[in-house]
Inverse folding.
């Protein structure tokens, strides 16, 4: 038995034992019984008094004995409701209780579906659309149709109708995300006919019309809505809708059709996880373990499939709903490229973009960062640094209760609380009588056939080769990598020929040693077999390529092999290695082919390199190749390909780490050159590990231009971490290294300018930026000269001269556009918007939105953050403060991820004013106390300081002195990390009310 209220009230049988009610047939109830039922459903799962229910049924004309009459009606209704596991009507003083499970009421089912759909809307719009269609199909008319205008049901009916409208708008949003613009327009016509004053569907209609090539209709939609708002309500459209009109007028590319989900859960897992064969049971076991333990280690020999299982499990775990548990996402840390145990924590901080902060070591800072996070951390290939991983995992386990770790290793980590899951090989065909169907269904054979068909199109399993294929899989013990290598031979050999060579070469496969060692030797032997098929030039090239820590491009291989082969021949060498499955090739998103070696094959090549006695020459060539790459990329970060070149550095991070470590041990000057070349990449992407490299590289050095840039890079990291005093000292060392007359001074001067800007010493900013601009102009470095001008413009704005600031910004913009320097254009547009927030907020909103688009187009994380802060502040002071709550939540998460404490405290101080504006006085006072004398924040000055003082006075007047002091003290006692977590939760709560 179920109840339906999304339309006329109905009691529907579902095949239970209700008398006279057929399955899926509406029960016939008298008018009075229907009113009783309506009243009980409106207040379902709560006690309803007899008096209130009598008023619902009879109004002002109750019978003489209303209580007895009501009891009689309830008894009759109870009989109609009698069903197994259906709604239950109970007598509870002072009246009755209708107990309804969520699945027994269509309104509850509707709300459950719409909530789930909204959670999936951005990440999986196809799934969300299906859920929303199912939810909206539950409606048969207005909620509580015949009672909707009556007092007892009006509020609930209105709430359900509003939820329905939002669901229809969400369904339109799903259509837009899926590129179904015509469908969106069709749906919106009905929505707007019923809700002509709702802004969201008007914005959706503008986007859908524009993307359908109907720009004029999109603009007409805006104008009609604006006129109607003004005539009927005396209101103006929101800044967001005004911005949308501007984007339509400008034909902004960001309005183009989006056929890809906007965003998935946070993290860096592969978009397309590995496809696995024959691992369903294994995946189910691992997933079940991961749902209940905090540390799970997958163990097994190299090539057994640990990494693929871990990645598939992590992706599936999020898709199956664990993203609600892991609200901070899932993050992969690849440890195979990390050869130095001391760099394990660095690798994790790099993957998570955790900035270092003053007074904390890398491990303690990482634990502090993770302390408030709920995420899944995948540590892949731990065996060669197992002790360091174990120590770090132990620290995370003790200090971070909501972090789950999934590790892969050839041996357990040996940490308290660890659950170990040995990964078995794939099942192999049974010996004895051959059954072709059974062989084909065996997981190891299925993998062999898939890879063989890829190597030799048309390859199939048949009676003539089934026995040989089965024997190959048995001989290779079901090890996936070994099977893949053997299958690749089908391009030039038959299965029987492979078996013959296995028998001759690998007589030790059935030795008495334990299976894990046997499997490892089998795998090694299969790689050796492929290696022996190479000629000498290919072997030498392969050995050298094994020093790469991660994937690499043809250009990187050419640099590495320049002493081994002419540049023109490297492509042919790589092609031969790809053909023999020693190197894997795959196209990147930009069309560039990227090459990689599987971990076991890389280890094999490194063994051969050691046997040749050529490890050091190869490492030296590798380090020089990546320093050359960094120096080649550095000047290209100012031009039109800025994002592509910065991405090239990000993709090469494991190799850069390896190069820096080798250089620190063998060629200190080379190490300094590397971090010097990464100065601008550090400003743009804020990578914590680069700043740590810089500090290690420059200790005790101050005698060259490269030293000056390396000191500046280290100072940048200190400035992001909130340690302005250390940033100043490091930058001054950079000036000392540069000397008084070298143009390289512009780099440490840049950092000093920012330090003094954060401190509010605006006169010093003017002096330092002028010198930095002069040195940039002297050597034709328009980018850094422009950045110096930008900082001076901000200083003038904060000192009360916005006109001069705007003039400087416009000058920089013109010059940056002439040089096609998109990043610098973004900074100039940001300043132009920042200086007009309080004088021309509409114009400022357009400019700040434009700056944000520039920043996002090149993934300049620093500019993204500061632009978001200004947008949030503008909405707080000149728009709808409640809409600013969500923007500030995003900004705080951005700076938390980047661990830029100087910027974070600037943001949090702005939130104090916002909380006061939305009436959250006590929360504002707590944050006011927290934002006091923090060692990780700069001093407050100028208009921001004036606004905070005014807000403090208002809060003090609104609260009693005792309450104000207590709340202020509570905030002061919080740690930095706890403040961020508390503010995030507070903003979420306020935004939801």
């Amino acid at each position: 038995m179920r109840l339906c209220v999304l339309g006329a009230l109905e009691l529907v049988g579902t095949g239970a034992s209700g008398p006279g009610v057929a399955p899926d047939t509406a029960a016939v109830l008298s008018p009075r019984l229907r009113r009783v039922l309506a009243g009980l459903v409106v207040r379902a799962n709560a006690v309803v008094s007899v008096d209130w229910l009598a008023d619902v049924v009879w109004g002002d004309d109750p019978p003489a004995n209303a209580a007895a009459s009501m009891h009689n009606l309830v008894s009759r209704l109870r009989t109609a409701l009698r069903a197994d596991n259906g709604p239950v009507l109970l007598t509870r003083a002072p009246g009755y209780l209708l107990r309804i499970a969520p699945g027994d009421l269509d309104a509850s089912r509707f709300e459950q579906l719409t909530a789930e759909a909204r959670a999936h809307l951005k990440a999986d719009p196809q799934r969300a659309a299906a859920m929303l269609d199912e939810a909206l199909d539950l409606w048969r008319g207005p909620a509580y149709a015949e009672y909707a205008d009556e007092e007892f049901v009006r509020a609930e009916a209105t709430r359900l109708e509003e939820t329905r409208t939002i669901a229809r708008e969400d369904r339109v949003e799903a259509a837009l995300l899926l590129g179904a613009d015509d469908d969106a327009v069709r749906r919106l016509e009905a929505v707007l006919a019923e809700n002509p004053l709702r802004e969201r569907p008007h914005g959706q209609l503008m986007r859908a019309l524009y993307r359908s090539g109907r720009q004029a209709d999109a603009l007409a939609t805006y104008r009609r809505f604006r006129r109607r708002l003004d005539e009927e309500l005396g209101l103006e459209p929101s800044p967001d809708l005004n911005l949308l009109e501007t984007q339509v007028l400008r034909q902004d590319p960001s309005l183009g059709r989006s056929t890809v989900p906007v965003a998935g859960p946070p993290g860096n897992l592969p978009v397309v996880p590995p496809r696995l064969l024959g691992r369903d049971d294994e995946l189910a076991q691992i997933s079940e373990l991961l749902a209940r333990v905090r540390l799970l280690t997958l163990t097994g020999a190299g090539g057994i499939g640990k990494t693929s299982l871990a990645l598939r499990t992590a992706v599936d775990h999020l898709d199956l709903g664990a993203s609600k548990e892991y609200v901070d996402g899932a993050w992969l840390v690849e440890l195979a490229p990390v050869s130095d145990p001391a760099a394990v924590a660095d690798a994790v901080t790099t993957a998570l973009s955790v900035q270092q902060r003053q007074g904390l070591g890398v491990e303690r800072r990482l634990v502090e960062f993770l302390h408030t996070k709920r995420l899944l951390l995948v540590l892949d290939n731990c065996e060669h640094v197992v002790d360091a991983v174990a120590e770090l995992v132990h620290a995370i386990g003790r200090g971070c209760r909501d972090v789950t770790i999934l590790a892969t290793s050839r041996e357990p980590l040996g940490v308290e609380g660890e659950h170990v899951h040995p990964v078995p090989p794939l099942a192999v065909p049974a010996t004895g009588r051959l059954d072709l169907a059974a062989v084909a269904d065996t997981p190891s054979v299925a993998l062999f056939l898939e890879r063989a068909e890829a190597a030799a199109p048309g390859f199939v399993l048949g009676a003539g080769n089934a026995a040989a294929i089965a024997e190959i899989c048995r001989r290779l013990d079901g090890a996936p990598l070994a099977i893949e290598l053997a299958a690749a031979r089908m391009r030039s050999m038959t299965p029987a020929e492979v078996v013959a060579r296995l028998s001759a070469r690998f007589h030790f496969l059935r030795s008495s040693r334990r299976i894990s060692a046997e499997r490892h030797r089998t795998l090694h032997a299969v790689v050796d077999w492929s290696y022996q098929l190479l000629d000498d030039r290919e072997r030498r090239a392969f050995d050298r390529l094994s020093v790469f820590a991660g994937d690499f491009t043809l250009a990187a291989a050419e640099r590495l092999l320049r002493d081994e082969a002419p540049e023109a021949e490297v492509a042919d060498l790589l092609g031969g290695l790809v053909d023999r499955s020693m190197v894997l090739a795959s196209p990147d998103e930009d069309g560039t082919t990227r090459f990689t070696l599987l971990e076991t094959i890389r280890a094999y090549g490194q063994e051969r390199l050691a046997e040749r006695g050529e490890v050091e020459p190869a490492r030296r060539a590798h380090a020089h190749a990546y320093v050359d790459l960094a120096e080649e990329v550095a000047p290209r970060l100012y031009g039109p390909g800025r994002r592509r070149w910065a991405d090239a550095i990000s993709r090469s991070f494991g190799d850069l780490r390896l190069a820096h470590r080798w250089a620190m041990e063998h060629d200190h000057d080379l190490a300094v050159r590397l971090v010097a070349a990464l100065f601008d990449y550090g400003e743009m992407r804020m990578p914590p590990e680069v700043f740590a490299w810089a500090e290690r590289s420059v200790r005790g050095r101050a005698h060259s231009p490269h030293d000056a840039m390396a000191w500046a890079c280290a100072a940048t990291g200190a400035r992001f971490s909130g340690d302005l005093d250390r940033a100043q000292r490091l930058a001054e060392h950079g000036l000392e290294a540069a000397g008084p007359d070298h143009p390289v001074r512009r780099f440490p001067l840049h950092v000093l300018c920012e330090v003094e800007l954060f401190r509010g010493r605006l006169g010093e900013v003017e002096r330092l930026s002028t010198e930095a601009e002069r040195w940039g102009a002297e050597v034709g470095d328009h980018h850094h000269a422009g950045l110096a001008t930008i900082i001076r413009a901000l200083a003038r704005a904060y000192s009360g001269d916005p006109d001069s600031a705007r003039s400087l910004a416009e000058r920089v913009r013109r010059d940056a556009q002439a040089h096609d320097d998109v990043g610098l254009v973004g900074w100039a547009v940001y300043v132009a918007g920042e200086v007009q927030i309080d004088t021309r907020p509409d114009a400022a909103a357009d400019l700040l939105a434009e700056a944000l688009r520039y920043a996002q187009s090149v993934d300049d994380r620093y500019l993204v953050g500061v632009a978001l802060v200004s947008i949030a502040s503008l909405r707080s002071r000149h728009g709808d403060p409640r809409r600013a709550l969500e923007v500030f939540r995003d900004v705080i998460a951005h700076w938390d991820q980047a661990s830029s404490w100087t910027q974070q405290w600037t943001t949090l101080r702005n939130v104090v004013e916002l909380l006061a504006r939305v009436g959250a006085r006590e929360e504002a006072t707590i944050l006011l106390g927290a934002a006091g004398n923090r060692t990780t924040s700069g001093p407050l000055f100028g208009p921001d300081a004036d606004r905070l003082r005014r807000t403090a006075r208002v809060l003090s007047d609104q609260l009693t002195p005792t309450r104000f002091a207590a709340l202020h003290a509570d905030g002061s006692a919080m740690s930095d990390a706890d403040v961020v977590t508390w503010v995030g939760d507070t903003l979420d709560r306020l935004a939801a009310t």
